[in-house]
Amino acid sequence: IDEAHKRGIEVHAWINPYRITKDGDKEFTEISSESPAKKYYQYVVKYSDGNYYFNPGIPEVRKLVVDGAVEIVKKYDVDGIVFDDYFYQNGMMDSYDDELYAKYNPDSLERGDWRRRQVNLMVQDVYNAIKSRKPWCRFGISPAGVAASSKAVADKYGVTPCPAGSDWQYNQIYAEPVQWLVDQSIDYISPQVYWTIGAS
Predict the structure, then answer these.
(1) Do residues 172 and 123 lie in contact, with contact meaning Cβ atoms separated by under 8 Å?
(2) Which of 123, 131, 171, 196 is deepest in the core (most CB within 10 A)?
(3) Residue 81 β-bridge partners
(4) Which helix (H) or strand (E) holds 132?
(5) Residue 8 contacts by C-beta under 8 Å, 6 or more apart in sequence?
(6) Are residues 44 and 20 in contact, defined by beta-carbon separation less than 8 angstroms?
(7) In this structure, what DSSP letter does residue 17 have?
(8) Is residue 88 within 8 Å of residue 143, measured between CB atoms?
(9) Are 84 and 12 in contact (CB under 8 A)?
(10) Per-residue pLDDT tens over the stretch 73-117
(11) pLDDT tens, 147-178?
(12) % pLDDT > 90, the chain
């Protein structure tokens, strides 16, 4: 960090907010017993691909994510925190959060809207926690590069549908980058663009 700052380069710490493993049981076994994933195993979902994720619908998981971001901001002279584009796991079945959906849904939202709200609450909480400690420290997210390809989703935000990509972000991992900008709960977006230039 010091060497970067000497050269006028900002350092933003990259975080996967919910993802615990990429190598399933083997990796999970090797995680320290002090890891929140081991200490709070009741917050963990083992997904159908064999990997482990924190369940975004649990309020205590939001606090774990916030606390992790704050720990980095307090211990290191980083200029920002940036999240990867892993939120709800793609294809997460209803059985993973039926109980949470019933328990934490006072507004009777449709499940997709409810899941998006859980992510949005986490994003807002992280933003507030960072700013309360270091107002100059920036918070960004690096989502998939398409906000919406369907007209219905695009109309919700007043944007033009993009012919490339898909609404995987909105309907499958339940992320709303445009909403974060509207809510001013992030400072910037750095989209991940996985499509051929000129794709249609």
Answers:
(1) no
(2) 123
(3) 13, 139
(4) helix 111-133
(5) none
(6) yes
(7) S
(8) no
(9) no
(10) 999 999 999 999 889 988 889 999 999 999 999 999 999 999 999
(11) 777 888 888 888 888 776 667 788 889 999 98
(12) 74
